[in-house]
């Protein structure tokens, strides 16, 4: 059974849309926590309530909301992704090396965009959740994330 919050919605026009680009230097395959940068963006624009979105502009890196307390979870997730899309599995596309096609498959599985509600000036993440960029390639890269907010902000 579920419980629906029946708080009446206040219908008011959206008064703010803001966008920013975040460049993340990765160290190769792994998770990079970008929760702090997303929160800083919201603080900078004075976001109060609305929706934050993030979009990764790459086909071999992705975004996810995941466990932020125990790093073993992220290590196990990388192991799972490697099992689902291993290097050396007979991929035809290998233009940029043996990790190229597995990286594309891992991005397909994990996705390039997330949406997170914003309430009381904060991302409405669960206690153990963080926002992560996942680098699927073995070498270092510069990854660009487009962050946007639509909703209400202080003026």
Automatic annotation (TrEMBL):
Pfam families: YjbQ (PF01894). This is Secondary thiamine-phosphate synthase enzyme. Belongs to the UPF0047 family. Gene3D superfamilies: YjbQ-like. It comes from the Bacteria. It comes from Xanthobacter agilis.
């Amino acid at each position: 059974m579920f419980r629906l919050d029946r708080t009446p919605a206040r219908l008011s026009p959206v008064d703010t849309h803001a966008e920013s680009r975040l460049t993340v230097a990765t160290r190769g395959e792994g998770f990079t926590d970008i929760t702090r940068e997303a929160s800083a963006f919201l603080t900078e624009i004075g976001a109060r309530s609305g929706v934050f979105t993030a979009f990764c502009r790459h086909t071999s890196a992705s975004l996810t909301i995941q466990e932020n307390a125990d790093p073993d979870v992220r290590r196990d997730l990388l192991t799972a992704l490697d099992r689902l899309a291993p290097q050396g599995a007979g991929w035809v596309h290998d233009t940029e090396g043996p990790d190229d096609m597995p990286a594309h498959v891992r991005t397909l599985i994990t996705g390039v965009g997330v949406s997170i509600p914003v309430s009381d000036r904060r991302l409405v993440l669960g206690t153990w959740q963080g926002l992560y960029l996942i680098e699927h390639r073995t070498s270092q890269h510069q990854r660009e994330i487009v962050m946007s907010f639509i909703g209400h902000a202080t003026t």
